[in-house]
Write a structure and sequence with these properties.
The chain is mainly beta and 711 residues long. The chain has one domain (8-710): TonB-dependent receptor, beta-barrel domain (Maltoporin, Chain A, Beta Barrel). 5% of the residues lie in helices and 53% in strands. It contains six helices and 40 strands. The protein has a 22-stranded antiparallel beta barrel. Strands 3-8-9-6-7 form a five-stranded mixed sheet. Strands 15-39-38 form a three-stranded antiparallel sheet, with no helix packed on it. The protein starts with 7 loop residues before the first helix and ends with a strand. This is Metal-pseudopaline receptor CntO. It is found in: Cell outer membrane. Residues 75-173 form the TonB-dependent receptor plug domain.
Length: 711
C-alpha cells in the first residue's frame, strides 16, 4: 500500500475546502438533525464499561480513555491500541517504562539498551511522545526524569497519529502512562526487593477511604532504591513519594489531586562503546572491549534528576447529556548531567587506549499543561453520539548550562586507571538561551454508532505553537489536523476498521546552531480488524499501515548529544497481536510486527531508518500451576525476538537477538514471594549500532527477588 503524494497546497492544509466543511459538520453531530430534534440522552443502563483509571484484573484491558479521551471499548476505536496493565508490569519484573513495553506489538523497546537517562522506544519507526494521565510528560532530550513503573496502573500505546486529540505527537504514536489513583476499597501493599548488581528496593502502596461515607479517598505510594548497574561505577538510586487524594462530594463530581517528588542519583549507563571491539573485532589483535567498561570518570560522571509536580483532575456531570473535565499539571525538573564518552575516530589505539570527550548539560524545565473537555452523550434517530469538544494548553520554559571539551585524556579500555584527565572548569560552561514553547489547540470529535453496527469517528483540530528563544526571533507554527475512522461490528465479535489520521508535533529545543527545531508533520492510512469472542476478554488485532513523516529527528553523526532533522521518512508495516484469557488461571500474550522504513528525502535518501528492526516478535505465558497441587504457585516464561537493524546509512547491520525471560511466584494468605530472571541466558547483544561509530549494549541478565505483603 502506498500513499499518494500530496500537492503543496494539500500538504500545507490537507483538510481545507469541502473536505474540511464536511468533516466539521459531521464532527459536530450532524447539524441538520440537531436543528430539528430534541437531543435524547443515551441509555447507559446496560453492561457497565471498564473504568480506564481503575485497576485491571489480569493482562487484558477492555476499554481505553487515551484513544478517544472518552471511556470507550478498545474494540470500538478505529485505531491500534495496546495496554500494559499493572499485573503484567509486576509479573514481568520490569524496572522501567521501556522494559514494560518489551511484549507490546510494534514497539521497539529499549531502543538504545540500558539507559539511565531516559526511556527510549520506537513505535512504527517513530519516537513516541510520553504522556502522563493524558498530558505531555517528556519535553526534549535529557529534561524529563524517567517515570517509576510502580506508580502506574497501566501503560497505553496508541499506534499511529493522535494529534487531533493531543496536538503534540509524531506519526508513529504516543505512550500514555496512567498513574494509580485512590480507591474506595482499603488495601496496603509492602514490597521488599533484592537483586543482582547489589539492588535493594523497598516500596509501599496504600489506599482507601478517609471518612465513613467514602467521599474522601487517599493513596500514598513511596519507593526507595539503592542499586548498582551492569556498568562499573554507575549507580541507579531513586527516592519517590507520590500522595494523592480524591474528593467525591456527589455522584456527579470527582476531584483528584496528585503530588510527586522524585529524586534520582545515577550515572550514565550508555558508554557509547566503539564499534571496533564490540560489534566488530578489535584492531591490532586486541581482545574485545568488556561490556561493563566505564569510559567516564567516577568523580565526574553523574545523571542526577529532581522532579516536583502537582496534578489536578476534575470531572463534573452537568446533566444526562453533558460532562465537563479539567486536567491541570505544574511540574519543575532539574537535571545535572555530566559524562565522558569516546572519540569514535580513531576508536582504539594499538596499546588499547581510547581518546575521550567531556560533556556537561544542566537543564531546568518548568511546565504548565492543561486540558479542558466537554463531552456530550446523546442520540439523533438511530445514531448514538459521543461528542467531545476540548481546548488544551502547554507552556514549557527551559534553560541550561553546557560545556564540551575534546581530548581530555586517554583511557585504557583493558586496564582503566581513573583520575588522569583534563577537568572542566567554570570557563568551559556557557548559558544556553532560554527557550519558551507555548502551544494551544482546539479540537472536536464525534464518535457515532449507527444501528448498533456501524461506528464512525471523525475529528478536527487547530493547533498553534509558538517557540521563542531568548535574544532570538519567535517562531509560530499553526496547523489543522484531522482523523476519520470507520468500523463495522459483526455479531460474532469481528470488527474490521479503516482510518486516516494526521500528526503535528512542535519540537522543543535548539539545534547546534541555536535555531529552534521545525515541527514534525505526518499522515497515516491504516486498515485492520479486531476480534473479541463472546463472553471473553481476549482481544486479537491485525493491522496494516502506511505512514509518512517530515522533519524527523535523528542522531547527529558528529556529536551523540545533539540531534538533526531529516527531510521525509516513511514506514509501512503489518502488526499482529493476541492477548488471550485462556482460562481463569492462564494468560497469554503473543505478537509479531513487520516494519519497513525508508528515508524518502534528506540525508541518506533510500536508507532504512536507524535502530528500527524489520521483524520483531514475542510470546509471554503466565499460568497457575494447579496441577502440582500447590495452591498459589504460578510461573511465567517469555521469548523475545528482535530482528536486525541498520545504522541509518545501510552500511552497518546490528544482528538479531533472541532473549528469554522467566518468573515464578508463590503466594499464601497475604504473602507472596516472586523471582524474576530477565535475559535468562545472559546474552551479550547490541540494541543499536550507529553510523557515527558507537554501539549500545543491551540489558544483561537481571535477577530480582520480591517479597510482598498485602493487607
Amino acid at each position: 500500500m502506498q500513499l499518494l503524494p500530496l500537492t503543496k497546497q494539500q500538504a500545507k492544509h490537507p483538510f481545507r475546502g469541502t473536505w474540511t466543511t464536511g468533516l466539521l459538520a459531521l464532527a459536530m453531530a450532524t447539524t441538520p438533525a440537531l436543528a430539528q430534534e430534541t437531543l435524547t440522552p443515551i441509555n447507559v443502563s446496560g453492561e457497565r464499561l471498564e473504568d480506564p483509571s481503575a485497576p485491571v484484573d489480569g493482562y487484558i484491558a477492555t476499554s481505553s480513555r487515551a484513544g478517544t479521551k472518552t471511556t470507550t471499548p478498545i474494540t470500538e476505536i478505529p485505531q491500534s491500541i495496546s495496554v500494559v496493565t499493572a499485573d503484567q508490569i509486576q509479573d514481568q519484573g520490569v524496572a522501567s517504562v521501556q522494559e514494560a513495553l518489551r511484549y507490546t506489538v510494534g514497539v521497539g523497546a529499549e531502543q538504545f539498551g540500558l539507559d539511565s537517562r531516559g526511556d527510549w522506544q520506537s513505535v512504527r519507526g517513530g519516537d513516541p511522545v510520553i504522556y502522563l494521565d493524558g498530558m505531555q510528560k517528556t519535553f526534549g532530550f535529557y529534561q524529563s526524569p524517567r517515570t517509576e513503573p510502580y506508580l502506574l496502573e497501566r501503560i497505553e500505546v496508541i499506534r499511529g497519529p493522535s494529534s487531533v486529540l493531543y496536538g503534540q505527537g509524531n506519526v508513529g504514536g504516543l505512550v500514555n502512562l496512567a498513574t494509580k489513583r485512590p480507591q474506595a476499597e482499603q488495601s496496603t501493599e509492602l514490597k521488599l526487593q533484592v537483586g543482582n548488581h547489589s539492588r535493594k528496593q523497598a516500596a509501599i502502596d496504600s489506599t482507601g477511604a478517609l471518612n465513613e461515607d467514602g467521599t474522601l479517598l487517599y493513596r500514598f505510594i513511596a519507593l526507595g532504591r539503592d542499586s548498582d548497574t551492569q556498568v562499573n561505577k554507575v549507580e541507579d538510586n531513586r527516592v519517590v513519594i507520590a500522595p494523592s487524594i480524591t474528593w467525591r462530594p456527589t455522584d456527579q463530581t470527582e476531584w483528584t489531586l496528585m503530588a510527586l517528588h522524585q529524586e534520582d542519583r545515577s550515572g550514565t549507563t550508555s558508554q557509547f562503546l566503539p564499534i571496533e571491539g564490540t560489534l566488530k573485532p578489535s584492531p591490532f589483535g586486541l581482545p574485545q572491549i568488556p561490556y561493563d567498561l566505564f569510559i567516564s570518570e567516577p568523580d565526574f560522571d553523574r545523571y542526577n534528576t529532581r522532579e516536583k509536580a502537582v496534578t489536578s483532575l476534575l470531572s463534573h456531570q452537568l446533566n444526562n447529556i453533558w460532562t465537563v473535565r479539567q486536567n491541570l499539571r505544574y511540574s519543575e525538573t532539574e537535571v545535572d548531567y555530566q559524562s565522558i564518552y569516546p572519540l569514535f575516530t580513531p576508536a582504539l589505539k594499538p596499546n588499547g587506549d581510547i581518546a575521550r570527550v567531556a560533556y556537561a548539560n544542566k537543564p531546568n524545565l518548568d511546565t504548565v499543561t492543561a486540558d479542558h473537555q466537554a463531552e456530550a452523550l446523546f442520540s439523533t434517530g438511530n445514531v448514538d453520539h459521543t461528542v467531545l469538544l476540548g481546548w488544551d494548553y502547554q507552556h514549557a520554559v527551559s534553560n541550561s548550562r553546557r560545556a564540551y571539551k575534546a581530548d581530555i585524556g586517554d583511557l585504557n579500555v583493558f586496564n582503566p586507571v581513573y583520575g588522569n584527565y583534563d577537568r572542566l572548569t567554570e570557563s568551559d560552561f556557557s548559558e544556553t538561551p532560554e527557550n519558551t514553547v507555548i502551544q494551544s489547540g482546539f479540537y472536536a470529535q464525534n464518535q457515532m454508532t449507527i444501528n448498533d453496527r456501524w461506528i464512525a469517528v471523525l475529528g478536527l483540530r487547530h493547533d498553534s505553537a509558538r517557540n521563542k528563544t531568548e535574544g532570538g526571533t519567535a517562531f509560530t507554527d499553526e496547523e489543522v489536523t484531522g482523523r476519520a475512522g470507520l468500523m463495522y461490528k459483526f455479531s460474532n465479535g469481528v470488527t474490521p476498521f479503516v482510518s486516516y489520521s494526521e500528526s503535528f508535533k512542535p519540537v522543543t529545543g535548539l539545534d547546534v546552531f541555536n535555531n529552534p527545531f521545525e515541527p514534525l508533520k505526518g499522515e497515516q492510512v491504516e486498515v485492520g480488524v479486531k476480534y473479541q469472542p463472546a463472553d471473553s476478554a481476549s482481544l486479537y488485532t491485525a493491522t496494516v499501515y502506511d505512514l509518512r513523516e517530515k522533519n524527523r529527528q535523528a542522531p547527529d553523526p558528529m556529536n551523540p548529544n545533539n540531534q538533526i532533522q531529516n527531510g521525509e521518512t516513511s514506514a509501512r508495516g503489518i502488526e499482529l497481536e493476541a492477548k488471550v484469557d485462556v482460562n481463569a488461571h492462564w494468560d497469554l500474550i503473543a505478537n509479531y510486527a513487520y516494519t519497513d522504513t525508508e528515508v524518502k528525502e534528506g540525508n541518506n535518501q533510500g536508507a532504512r531508518l536507524a535502530s528500527i528492526p524489520e521483524h520483531t516478535a514475542s510470546l509471554w505465558s503466565q499460568h497457575e500451576l494447579r496441577a502440582l497441587g500447590i495452591p498459589g504457585l504460578r510461573a511465567g516464561a517469555g521469548v523475545r525476538y528482535v530482528g536486525s537493524s541498520w545504522d541509518g546509512t545501510d552500511q552497518l547491520k546490528t544482528p538479531a537477538e533472541t532473549l528469554l525471560d522467566a518468573m515464578i511466584a508463590y503466594g499464601r494468605d497475604s504473602w507472596e514471594l516472586a523471582l524474576n530472571v530477565n535475559n535468562l541466558t545472559n546474552e551479550t547483544y547490541f540494541t543499536t549500532c550507529l553510523a557515527r561509530g558507537d554501539c549500545f549494549i543491551g540489558t544483561k541478565r537481571t535477577v530480582t527477588g520480591t517479597l510482598s505483603y498485602r493487607f
